[in-house]
C-alpha cells in the first residue's frame, strides 16, 4: 500500500529512558521543527504526553500522541513484560511499525524489552537467530562498527557470524564502504587464541564470503583496520561503555586545558613578535591538533592566544589540544619573565620528528 502522507513517520516511545517523558517530548518537538520530512507519533499515556506537549508551541507541527496505557521498566523481566503488557508504549510502537503506521521506531527504554518487542511483533530476518544491537560508537571511529553491543550475552559461533553479516551490510548501506573488513575481537591475533566461542567462530568467518581479516585485539580497535568488529554482547557492552567514558574524560580534560590556556593568555607575553610571518600556524594547529605547549612572554602573546583559541575551540570535539615541542634554549632572548607552560606528549611532523619552532 502506497502511503498518502509523504512524510516519514517515526513511532517514538515517549516513556522510555531515564529522563522520559520530558527529554523525549522536547527532542520530538525539535525534530519536527528542524526536519520538514519527519512526522513523530509520541506513544504513551495521553494525559502525561499532552501535558509535556503543552509546554511548546506545536501549532501546525506534524506531531501527535498515540495512546498507550502501560510502560516497561528497567527492573522488569523483558520477555515477561512484553507478553504481559501488550498496551505498553513500546509494544504499541512496535505494532505501529508492523502495521505500516510508522516507518521507524525509537525507544530509549530497556534494551531487552526493545529486542523482545521486535521479535514478537516484527519477527526475525531469515537466517538470523538472534536480534543484535550495534553501530558506530563515537566520532573518533566513524568507520568502525561493533556488533553485538547489548543484547546477546551468551552466544554460539553462528550468532557471531550473523552479527558480522549484519555489520557488513550496515557499513555498505550506511557508511558507503564497498568491501568492509571484519575482525573478531579476541585476546590475540593467532587463530588458536581465545575462549571456545572465538576459536570456533574463527573458521566460520574464515570460510565465509566476508572480508575477514582475522582476530582483533583491544589495542588495535582504534587503528580502524577493521570496519566491523564481531563480539558477544557481554564484551561489546563493556567495551562500548569504556570507550564512551574515555571519550567523556578526554573531553573534560580538553575543556579544563582550554580554560587554563585562555587564563594563561591573559598573563603571558608573546611567542612570535611578528605574527604576520606566522599566519599559517593557525592551519597547522587546526589540522594537527592533538596537544598544546604554549610559551608566553610579552603582552602581544594575548592577541596570538586569542587567534589560536578561535581556531582551537571549533575543533575541540575531534581534535584536542596541540603541543609545540620547542627547544626553550633557542628562545632565551625572549625571556623577559618567567615562562609558563602547558605540556603534553608532542605529535610528530611530516618528517616523523617532534614539532619544533622551524616547523612554523
Q: What string gives the helices and strands in order?
A: EHEHEHHEHEEHEHEEHHH
Mean pLDDT: 76
Beta-strand residue fraction: 5-15%
- Tell me how many strands there are: 9
Tell me, briefly, the overall form: globular
CATH topology of the largest domain: Isopropylmalate Dehydrogenase
The poorly predicted ranges are: 268-348
CATH architect. name of the largest domain: 3-Layer(aba) Sandwich
Looking at this structure, what is the CATH superfamily of the largest domain?
Answer: Isopropylmalate Dehydrogenase
**What oligomeric state do the depicted chains represent?**
single chain
Helix content: 25-40%
Radius of gyration: 26 Å
Main sheet properties: 5 strands, mixed
- Cross-sheet strand order for the largest sheet: 5-6-9-7-8
- Ends: how far apart? 64 Å
Structural class: alpha/beta
What layout of secondary structure does this protein have?
Blueprint: E1 8-13, H1 22-34, E2 38-44, H2 46-53, E3 63-67, H3 78-84, H4 89-98, E4 104-106, H5 111-122, E5 134-136, E6 145-147, H6 157-174, E7 181-185, H7 196-207, E8 211-216, E9 228-230, H8 233-265, H9 281-288, H10 301-319
Parallel strand pairs: 1-2, 1-4, 2-3, 6-9, 7-8, 7-9
Antiparallel strand pairs: 5-6
Helix pairs in contact: 3-5, 4-5, 6-7, 8-10, 9-10
Q: How would you describe the overall organization of this protein?
A:
The protein has three domains: 8-122, Isopropylmalate Dehydrogenase; 134-239, no CATH class; 266-359, no CATH class. 39% of the residues lie in helices and 11% in strands. The protein contains ten helices and nine strands. It has helices at residues 22-34, 46-53, 78-84, 89-98, 111-122, 157-174, 196-207, 233-265, 281-288, 301-319; strands at 8-13, 38-44, 63-67, 104-106, 134-136, 145-147, 181-185, 211-216, 228-230. The strands form two sheets. A five-stranded mixed beta sheet has the order 5-6-9-7-8, sandwiched between helices. Strands 3-2-1-4 form a four-stranded parallel beta sheet. The chain is globular and about 60 Å long.
Amino acid at each position: 500500500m502506497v502511503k498518502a502522507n509523504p512524510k516519514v513517520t517515526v513511532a517514538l516511545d515517549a516513556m522510555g529512558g531515564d529522563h522520559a517523558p520530558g527529554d523525549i517530548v522536547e527532542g520530538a518537538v525539535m525534530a519536527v521543527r528542524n526536519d520538514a520530512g519527519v512526522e513523530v507519533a509520541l506513544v504513551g499515556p495521553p494525559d502525561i504526553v499532552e501535558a509535556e506537549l503543552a509546554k511548546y508551541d506545536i501549532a501546525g507541527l506534524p506531531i501527535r500522541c498515540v495512546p498507550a496505557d502501560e510502560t516497561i521498566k528497567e527492573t522488569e523481566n523483558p520477555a515477561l513484560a512484553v507478553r504481559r503488557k501488550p498496551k505498553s508504549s513500546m509494544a504499541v510502537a512496535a505494532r505501529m511499525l508492523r502495521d505500516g503506521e510508522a516507518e521507524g521506531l525509537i525507544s530509549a527504554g530497556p534494551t531487552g524489552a526493545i529486542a523482545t518487542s521486535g521479535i514478537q511483533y516484527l519477527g526475525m530476518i531469515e537466517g538470523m537467530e538472534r536480534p543484535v544491537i550495534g553501530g558506530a560508537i563515537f566520532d573518533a571511529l566513524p568507520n568502525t562498527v561493533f556488533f553485538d553491543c547489548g543484547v546477546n550475552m551468551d552466544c554460539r559461533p553462528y550468532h557471531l557470524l550473523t552479527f558480522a553479516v549484519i555489520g557488513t551490510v550496515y557499513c555498505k548501506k550506511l557508511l558507503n564502504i564497498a568491501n568492509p573488513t571484519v575482525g573478531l575481537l579476541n585476546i590475540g591475533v593467532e587463530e588458536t587464541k581465545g575462549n571456545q566461542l572465538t576459536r570456533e567462530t574463527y573458521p566460520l568467518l574464515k570460510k565465509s564470503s566476508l572480508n575477514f581479516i582475522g582476530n582483533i585485539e583491544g589495542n588495535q580497535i582504534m587503528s580502524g583496520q577493521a570496519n566491523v568488529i564481531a563480539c558477544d554482547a557481554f564484551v561489546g557492552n563493556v567495551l562500548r561503555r569504556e570507550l564512551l567514558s574515555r571519550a567523556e574524560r578526554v573531553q573534560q580534560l580538553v575543556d579544563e586545558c582550554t580554560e587554563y590556556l585562555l587564563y594563561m593568555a591573559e598573563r603571558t607575553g608573546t611567542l612570535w613578535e611578528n605574527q604576520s610571518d606566522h599566519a599559517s600556524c593557525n592551519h597547522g594547529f587546526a589540522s594537527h591538533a592533538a596537544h598544546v605547549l604554549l610559551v608566553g612572554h610579552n603582552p602581544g602573546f594575548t592577541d596570538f592566544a586569542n587567534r589560536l583559541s578561535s581556531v582551537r575551540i571549533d575543533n575541540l570535539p575531534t581534535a584536542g589540544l596541540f603541543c609545540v615541542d620547542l627547544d626553550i634554549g633557542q628562545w632565551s632572548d625572549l625571556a623577559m619573565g618567567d615562562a609558563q607552560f602547558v605540556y603534553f606528549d608532542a605529535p610528530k611532523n611530516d618528517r616523523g620528528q617532534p614539532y619544533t619552532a622551524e616547523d612554523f
